[in-house]
Request: fold
Amino acid sequence: MASYIGTPASRIDGHAKVTGEAKYAAEFNVPGLAHASVVSSAIAKGSIARLDTSEAMRVEGVIDVLTWQNRPPMARADSAYRDDVGPEDGSPFRPLYDDKIMFSRQPIALVVAEEPEIARSAASLVRVDYNEDEHLTDLFRRGNKIVTLKAPAPPRGNPGKAYAASDVRHEAEYVIPIEHHNPMELFASTAIWDDGKLTVYDKTQGVQNVQRYLCNVFAMKPNEVRVVSLFVGGAFGAGLRPQFEAALVVLAARALKRSVRLVLTRQQMYGLSYRPATIERLALGAKRAGTLNAVMHEATAMTSKHEDYARDDTAWSGRLYKSASAAYSHRLAKLDVPSPGDMRAPGAATGVYALECAMDELAVALKLDPLELRYRVYSDRDQNNDVPFTSKQLRECYRQGAEAFGWDKRNPEPRAMRDGSELVGWGIATGIWDALQMKFTVRIALTANGHAEVACGTSDIGTGTYTIMAQVTADMLGLPLDSVTVKLGDSTLPQSQVEGGSWTAASVSHAIAAAADKIKKELLRLAKKAPDSPLRSVKVEEVTLVDGKLAGKRDARHFVSIADAMRSGAVDRVEMESSSDFKDDSSHARNTHSATFAEVKVDEELGVVRVTRVVNAVAAGRILNPKTASSQIMGSVVWGIGMALHEETLIDQAFGRIMNANFAEYHVPVNADVQEIKVIFVEEPDEIINPLGIKGVGEIGIVGVAAAIANAVYHATGKRVRDLPITLDKLMR
Ligand code: MOS
Reply:
């Protein structure tokens, strides 16, 4: 049956995107649109003593300057500011709520003007006096107040004792700095005012999450706010929670009773969320033969004073490899900073980086090939919960990845491989991520001419959701791909969760399958109404939708076309809504896995590292679209290169303020940094996880990449740099 599922297909939204026809949040225009600009706090902690907006107000074209003192009402309770994915503990940030300053670059005033340039220029004329308090922004400062969270998984065995009794021990600290998402599209929101009702075009990964948030914060009824996000120019987690640009445009639109747009500057986006700096302490104890006795993983990450943001960094370590004993702990340092947030594979990208570097160091200590070590500690069970995996083809990832890379030609000695004047290093690392699935609702409308429209409130953050939704719908209804139209990114569509966690593909596909099944049933009911219907005595299980027809599975000569079925029933469309419904079943662990092989070349005199080759072999169940899925992995690998070698947000601790809030000084990989990347999807049939065997690929591709590169740098140079990014100064010291 499946003809589109599993087949490479170009993005159905690709044409709109490359021609500029695709409209992003800041590109919706209406007559009378006003433009807003944010004034940000220059201090990290304290309060606003005085805000003088008079000079800004005198600028021609300025309509108003909104502050905590003159803004329209906002909700008082914390609960109104909570959203689907924010931390449970703490108080969510409230923009322009009161005079408190909680972090540098906090929005403290909003200038609204007839033109964006006027707003921005006038924003520089708002005078602010602060009552400054002493701030704390340094994760590495001694004496930080540290909160210990509940361990992400229960300990097992006696790891302290087992570690002490081990033949070979490795213990070290690995550090990941703050990283910022830096999507191409700036965070922006356009609120269209229509007599008290608002349509908000927002850059977000979850229109319904933002819609509920706006309703709660501004005490509006659900039918008074609609949130739309048809295209997202990258987000990677920064757009999971409602960000302050959405609240601010609604605030301004309500104050002015007119349409307002706000586009944040690149610099202001450094006041949004980010991957928290994290210190990872790993202790691995092994037997001489290369088996693990003890795994101890402790993470200390930063969070804000107002919210306890944390994701699981540590429990991956004892789940991934076989070890009789394991213990985990996660601690938070509460600082005067905005709350951190999810960034591609949150927790795993950082925690597994540390684990995989530690495993490489252990392999060196054991004098074992690092790939061989991973085979020796391979686990077919999730030991944290003592259950099997729904599927785990990680062995195949190792095997196929090693073969494609040529791993067997590796000289194990560091500094032993060269290419002209450059040292060559080869490294490997394992990746693991969750295969999550959520309840999503989908509506399909099939018309008599054989055209289907499939609709869901989910987003497409660039991952290919439009395309896979069309593919799955086409297959389920037996239609050509171009007979399917996809509608998403609109809060008025059927409910979904935010697009995140790599759960969208599995969740939306099963909702489509369920809705298509209802359509099939209804068509059969209609088809039976025809006199002498060839399907009059068949059951629904005995028919399938194929080539625009409802046909007998056993004998395709018994069929009724969609058009004829609808004619018999005297209807011209059939519309059905259904939800994905996954069993909440803890009998199996659900994970994706990967093996990354990286080659680096290091200029010994300059310390310059180039990543010349990466092979990433991924086991992620059924791949719906190998083309868009490959792009997901490739993009993740590029980010892994950035994480390993370039990315680092630097705070000037004296001011509690980010120093490099721009693309010139916050380095991301550019074309010249990216060479050969090969993506392999190994076969991973999975009949347990869900009926279609889908796991999702949005995040697995980044997990382990930075470690594979760091391990390759060690192999090339003999130098172990444990704190990311591996910049040339660290290699030369
Ligand atoms: Mo992802 S960090 O769940 O957008």
Summary: The first strand starts at residue 34 and ends at 40. The longest helix spans residues 504-527. The chain has a mean pLDDT of 97. Residues 205, 236-237, 240, 342-344, 346, 500-501 surround dioxothiomolybdenum(VI) ion (CB under 6 Å).
